Amino acid sequence: MDALADKKALNWSELGFQYHKTDYRFSAVYENGAWGAGELVSSDLISVHEGAPSLHYAQQCFEGMKAQTTADGRVLLFRPDLNSERMNLAAVRTLMPEVPQAMFIDAVEQVVRANYAWIPPYGSGASLYIRPMLIGVGENLGLRPAKKFEFRVFASPVGPYFKGSGLSVISLAVSALDRAAPSGTGSFKVGANYAGGLLATRLAQQLGANEALYLDAREHRYIDEAGSANIIIAMKDGSLVTPRSNAILPSITRRSLMVLAKDQLKMPTAERPIDLRAEFDQFDEAAACGTAAVLSFVGKIWFDDAWHVIYKDGQSSGPVMQQLYDLLTGIQVGRLPDPYGWTHAVKI
Ligand code: PLP
Ligand code: COI
Fold first, then answer.
1. What is the mean pLDDT of residues 298-315?
2. Is 271 buried (19+), middle (13-18) or exposed (0-12) by CB count in 10 A?
């Protein structure tokens, strides 16, 4: 692949969060106790046996990450080591083989490099979304793990996850449905969590919200997370808080934002249970954070049959979230120094 190939003729700044077929993806197979070397392939189709445990019993997991172009033309990943770690935690939880970190990062780099023409240019507001996935394939019927697995990495150029977002305000509706039980799979990025959430998201959207907000499944009292992102809250006392829960995905974006708030904004930070109804009056700013969501300001939350407003009319962001957004995205696209070594340049 010619590293200087022209970019595709896409209207980058108009992209939504949709699948675009790119030229190459990586595929490796695990069989007889070992991973094959894997290779780039061009077909976007996977041929799996009808008895595959990933299809019946959701024996699968996935990751989400982004590659971004810097002003001087470098291509950066953000903390890919943490995506690899998290995928392996899910693999262990669902009885799948771990993907060695070197193999994971090499596969992601190969896919980014091979799809160079699809990486949105600096300043477009778009990025190359990368979706590593690990699935149980091969014939099976009883409830037992697969003997064969595929590790695949594909990529698609994407724009903002929430329609009309970027810097605009989203709304969340508390779901009566639960996403994950306290000792279930909520903290692992497995597809089953998301299948169960499709209806919750639809019901939230029918109320006019962008996404569902889950409270803890035991008491329906403490904030867990949104359907596709974690939650952070700037409190009126000047602290930044985020839910402590073993039923939520350990967001890499959230972990990074908590560090930035503490180090750069000198805010007291805490990961603790957040009682939505008891503490709502103390919320100054709230946001949903994640790879796809980036940092989306939460303007209002639906609960107890009413909208509860955080951002007042006409406000499109608060100062804390705006600063965090600028710091995070500044590091991710190489506009700001990266004192933490979070970015990972892909050799093009
Ligand atoms: N929570 C859920 C349910 C998610 O799907 C995601 C997205 O990956 C996140 C949180 C955010 O995690 P991260 O910041 O690692 O992308
Ligand atoms: C991500 O942010 O990477 C995710 O996987 C969320 C998904 C619902 C798009």
1. 89
2. middle
Residues 66, 156: Cα–Cα separation, whole Å: 9
64: Cβ below 6 Å to ligand 2? yes
Cα-Cα-Cα-Cα dihedral sign, residues 327, 328, 331, 332: negative
Q: How far is the CA of 237 from the centre of ligand 2 (A)?
A: 31
Report whether residue 230 contacts ligand 1, using a CB cutoff of 6 Å. Answer: yes
Q: Are the beta carbons of 50 and 315 closer than 8 angstroms? A: no
Give me the domains of the chain, ranges plus CATH numbers: 3-158 (3.30.470.10), 169-332 (3.20.10.10)
Q: Which two tokens stand for residue 266?
A: 């000198």
pTM of structure: 0.96
The pair of structure tokens assigned to 110 is 């190969």
**pLDDT tens by residue, 36-73:** 999 999 999 999 999 999 999 999 999 999 999 999 99
Give residues with Cβ within 8 angstroms of 20, minimum separation 6: 10, 118, 156, 157, 158
Beta strand 343-346 with 75-78 is: antiparallel
3-state secondary structure of 233: strand
Length of the chain, in residues: 348
Q: Give residue-wise pLDDT tens across range 187-244.
A: 999 999 999 999 999 999 999 999 999 999 999 999 999 999 999 999 999 999 999 9
The answer, yes or no, to whether any atom of ligand 1 lies below 6 A from the CB of 201, is no
Tell me the C-alpha distance between 250 and 270, whole Å. Answer: 15
201 lines ligand 2 (CB under 6 A): no
Can you tell me which residue has the tokens 């305000």? 169
- Pick from 74, 155, 164, 160: nearest CA to 125: 160
Distances 88 to 134, 135, 176 between C-alpha atoms, Å: 10, 13, 31
For residues 225 and 189, the answer to whether their CB atoms sit within 8 Å is no
Residue-level pLDDT at 311:
82
